[in-house]
């Protein structure tokens, strides 16, 4: 069900981020050792070195035959490609518009990958690694949220691509159209649901993304939420269909889950705080 997958993914993402953050010192030492060790040069073509890393990369992109996995044969292939590359430069083929367009596309992809990797590293160092959840904090959070933790909700959910489409559907419901009718009608901007595919079944507190908690736990059975959103995933309407007690809501059973949820919230807050700080200190121009 969509909400289960999103919640699991979100939790796993931040757990992994936390683990990476906790190991950042070890990772830094490993990276430094890797930088100190220069790759072995296996050949030179008109003075241009071909290293073991070039061959390993070429082998990682090979498909099919065992022969393509042989280092010597792969080295020969790289040498041939380097010869042809140098010949192309002599012929001026690097000025060809089609070639330039392809290279510019690849450079944009590399720039995007660099941003993604640096974002991950900043996230680990400046946010995840600095968060420490204590036992007292976990117990206090559990006590303050025990009512929610002790309840499972059976939810109906509609997802929308735009806020306007979600608000239009909500207005229809307010005007008398049932949530179920809207779910099956395929309103503009909203993916039509199959027979009761919008019914998520009973969902535990720990399986509901943090951005949705306040909206869904305020509902009484039969009520529909206002439009709620999660960054980069869209807009949603929820209907509370039923509730039941969570049979495993005692503190001993929930301590680890509560700790993870509290960490998730701290990470989210830290990310938003850092994002706002960077925006305030930067000169951003939109055209």
TrEMBL record:
Protein name: peptidylprolyl isomerase
Reaction(s) this enzyme catalyzes, per UniProt: [protein]-peptidylproline (omega=180) = [protein]-peptidylproline (omega=0)
Keyword Signal: yes
Organism listed in the record: Geomonas limicola
E.C. code: 5.2.1.8
Alphabetized GO MF terms: peptidyl-prolyl cis-trans isomerase activity
Record keywords: Isomerase, Rotamase, Signal
PROSITE patterns reported in the protein's UniProt record: PPIC_PPIASE_2, PROKAR_LIPOPROTEIN
One Pfam family matching this protein: Rotamase_2
InterPro entries named among the record's database cross-references: PPIase_dom_sf, PPIase_PpiC, PrsA_foldase, Trigger_fact/SurA_dom_sf
Domain of life per record: Bacteria
Signal peptide positions (record): 1-17
Domain PpiC as annotated: residue spans: 150-242
């Amino acid at each position: 069900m969509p909400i289960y997958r999103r919640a699991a993914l979100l939790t796993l993402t931040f757990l992994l981020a936390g683990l990476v953050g906790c190991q950042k010192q070890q990772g830094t030492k490993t990276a430094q050792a890797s930088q100190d060790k220069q790759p072995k040069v296996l050949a030179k073509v008109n003075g241009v070195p071909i290293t073991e890393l070039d061959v390993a990369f070429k082998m990682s992109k090979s498909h099919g035959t065992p022969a393509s996995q042989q280092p010597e044969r792969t080295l020969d292939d790289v040498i041939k490609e380097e010869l042809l590359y140098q010949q192309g430069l002599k012929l001026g083929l690097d000025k060809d518009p089609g070639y330039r367009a392809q290279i510019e596309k690849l450079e944009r992809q590399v720039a995007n990958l660099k941003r993604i990797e640096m974002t991950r590293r900043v996230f680990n160092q400046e946010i995840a690694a600095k968060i420490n959840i204590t036992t007292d904090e976990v117990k206090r959070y559990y006590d303050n949220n025990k009512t929610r933790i002790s309840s499972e909700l059976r939810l109906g959910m509609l997802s929308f691509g735009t806020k306007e489409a979600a608000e239009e559907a909500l207005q229809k419901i307010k005007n008398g159209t049932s949530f179920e009718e809207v779910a099956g009608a395929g309103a503009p901007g909203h993916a039509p649901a199959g027979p009761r595919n919008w019914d998520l079944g009973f969902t535990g507190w720990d399986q509901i993304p943090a951005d949705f908690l306040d909206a869904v736990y305020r509902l009484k059975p039969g009520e529909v939420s206002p439009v709620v959103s999660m960054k980069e995933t869209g807009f949603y309407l929820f209907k509370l269909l039923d509730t039941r007690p969570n049979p495993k809501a005692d503190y001993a059973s929930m301590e680890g889950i509560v700790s993870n949820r509290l960490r998730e919230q701290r990470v989210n807050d830290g990310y938003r705080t850092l994002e706002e700080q960077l925006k305030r200190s930067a000169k951003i121009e939109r055209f």
